[in-house]
Write a structure and sequence with these properties.
Distance between the termini: 165 Å
Number of strands: 21
Helix content: 40-55%
Shape: elongated
Largest sheet: 8 strands, mixed, barrel
Strand content: 15-25%
Length: 620
């Protein structure tokens, strides 16, 4: 029997089980009573299950409707059947306007729609439980809004059915912050150009093994930018840099170039494609012309110039370090050549420079290993050529591979590598040691030693103390030392050469000035130099090598007359023959050196010369 209102299916189940249990041994209840008990049990079980289902449904509905993220549920085909308020609010639509659309249609553009389609396909075809990505969803105002989305599937009403669900969280602020941080990490904050890090990354990419074609790298440095910063202030300097950045971007805009700021006033341009040096040079010349036009900042019309180093080559001709080094070298040459111009990298010139730089780097080891020696050039009195007036001391390098190298080949490199002072000290020390040996052997008949101090040593604060220490160590009077200089050294703006020479003259050393004309000679009274000897050099001496032209002779006479007025002793260098020496003597030159005596002499050779001349003087 069944209870009124009970579900027929439930009553039939209860009746069948009651009949079966009634046939079981040990059951004493009649079938009707047993059926009622089972019916009550089943009804209670169903009621509890339905209550649990209803509670779960209410919880899901509440969570779905109040969730702080947008949710869209679709049927198995991906058509949206339900949308919560948050998703409607996020996308600017009423929820009912989104129902009936496909989940993939929520993307902002084709790329976003493709991402959604890919996620749904992966859920359907794999064991993936969820798919997550950041995409732009279409907003009602035709804009795209960034969302962090999760796609998953929920079981349906029928067994085996699964329904796609999209959950979307607002990612606009996070995405904007990430984009801002990404932009700041690869761009220069002042100019907005790419920074050095991004520039190098893209340069590496441009030179990857798969790259083809040509590449051009241009390094640019503003000339004298410190003057702008110091004269007008850092604020104006920053504005100038922004103006320069704008001009560079415009100058290379049509060529898909990457323009970057590498340092304070250093910029770089990277071009790729089918390029030739003339094409790139034309672009750089245009850019330099544009930069030369004043940049107006308030009431200031600031003019700037730039130097540029250019490299154009095939992408397979070396790596990043090679092309960067080439651009730096070309830029350095442009600045050395006078600034405000460009210089194209020259591989052959670079090969020669590499050899020179290697030579400069070897100076320290060569000095330590005894590869330098003193060489001498004796100066004789023209009235008595057998009498040596002084000996000029210099350095020569016995290079193990290149042979004998004169001072003019390595002293400029020593300036670059910081070895000028050690070389100059060694020259001074060894020269005075030799002078002490001559004076010990020949007494007052021994010649003075004359040293041309390198400029860097001449401005060394410890020079005076150094000279005095070496004179004292060798027990030499200061008058035994002659210090030779020239007009360029006296006028050198890098240091106080004059002060050093004046103090040394006060100690008793003799100052010698090399002159080539009247202007050089007039430096003596102009700067009140304590000069006692002048050495005529260059054209004024060379003009009398093969004869005695009237104009040259007149010029020589004028110089000698003026030197005598200044109470100076007059010598000459570069004298090639006895005939030339005689012509100079007749005009008033009292001493000379050059090939007519000896071009150069080693220590042993000069000892023999001094001995011969001393013996000749005594005999005479």
């Amino acid at each position: 029997m069944s209870e009124p209102g009970a579900a027929p299916g439930l009553a039939d189940v209860a009746r069948r089980w009651a009949a079966r249990l009634a046939d079981t041994d040990g059951v004493s209840l009649p079938p009707e009573e047993l059926e009622q008990l089972l019916h009550d049990f089943a009804r209670n079980a169903v009621a509890e299950a339905e209550a649990a289902r209803d509670a779960a449904l209410r919880r899901f509905t509440t969570l779905y409707s109040t969730a702080p993220i947008g949710i869209a549920m679709a049927d198995p085909d991906g058509t949206i059947v339900e949308v919560n308020k948050e998703l409607g609010k996020f996308l600017g639509h009423r929820p009912d306007r989104l129902r009936g659309r496909r989940l993939t249609e929520l993307g902002f553009d084709d790329r976003d729609c493709e991402k959604l389609a890919t996620g749904l396909a992966e859920l359907a075809e794999t064991d993936l439980e969820e798919f997550a990505d950041r995409v732009r969803l279409a907003h009602a105002d035709d804009a795209g809004v960034w969302a962090d989305i999760v796609l998953t599937r929920l079981p349906g009403d029928r067994p085996g059915t699964l329904y796609p669900v999209l959950m979307a969280a607002d990612a606009n602020e996070v995405h904007t912050l990430q984009e801002t941080l990404r932009h700041q990490s690869i761009h220069d904050s002042l100019t907005g150009l790419s920074n050095a890090s991004r520039f190098r990354t893209l340069l590496e990419s441009a030179l990857s093994p798969s790259a083809r074609g040509q590449i051009a790298l241009v390094y640019l440095d503003l000339d004298g930018f410190k003057v702008i910063n110091d004269g007008l202030g850092a604020g104006v300097g920053d504005a100038v840099l922004r103006g320069v950045a704008k001009k560079l971007k415009e100058a290379f805009a049509e060529h898909d170039a990457l323009v970057a700021r590498l340092s304070g006033d250093g910029f770089a341009v990277l071009l790729r494609g089918e390029l030739t040096p003339p094409q790139v040079i034309a672009l750089v010349e245009t850019a330099l012309e544009d930069l030369a036009e004043p940049i107006y900042i308030g009431e200031h019309g600031v003019g700037v110039s730039a130097s540029a180093g250019i490299v154009v080559r095939d992408v397979r001709d070396g790596g990043v370090e090679d092309i960067e080094r080439a651009a730096e070298i070309a830029l350095h040459r442009a600045k050395e050549a006078g600034k405000a111009q460009w210089m194209l990298f020259d591989p052959e010139l670079d090969a020669r420079d590499r050899a020179r730089y290697r030579l400069g780097a070897e100076i320290a080891g060569a000095l330590e290993n005894g590869q330098f020696e003193l060489i001498y050039q004796p100066t004789v009195k023209l009235a008595n050529p057998d009498e040596i007036a002084a000996v000029n001391a210099g350095l020569r390098w016995h290079h193990p591979e290149l042979g004998e190298l004169p001072a003019e080949e390595f002293f400029p490199l020593a300036d670059t590598t910081g070895m000028t002072i050690p070389l100059g000290k060694w020259l001074l020390t060894e020269s005075l040691r030799a002078t002490a040996r001559w004076r010990e052997r020949y007494g007052d008949a021994a010649p003075d030693v004359c040293i041309r101090l390198p400029n860097r040593l001449a401005i060394e604060p410890d020079l005076v103390a150094m000279v005095k220490e070496e004179l004292d160590r060798n027990e030499l009077p200061a008058k035994a030392l002659r210090l030779c200089t020239d007009s360029d050294s006296i006028l050198d703006p890098r240091g106080e050469v004059l002060d050093s020479l004046t103090v040394l003259a006060d100690l008793g050393a003799k100052l010698v000035l090399t002159v080539q004309g009247s202007a050089d000679l007039e430096l003596i009274p102009q700067h009140r130099l304590s000069v006692q000897h002048v050495i005529l050099s260059g054209p004024v001496v060379d003009a009398l090598a093969d004869g005695e032209p009237e104009i040259a002779a007149r010029h020589l006479d004028q110089l000698i007359t003026r030197a005598r007025e200044l109470k100076l002793r007059i010598g000459a260098e570069g004298v090639r023959s006895h005939e030339q020496a005689e012509r100079l003597r007749r005009h008033g030159v009292i001493a000379a050196r050059g090939a007519f005596v000896a071009e150069t002499a080693t220590g042993d050779e000069v000892d023999q010369l001094i001995e011969q001349h001393t013996d000749a003087t005594v005999t005479g």
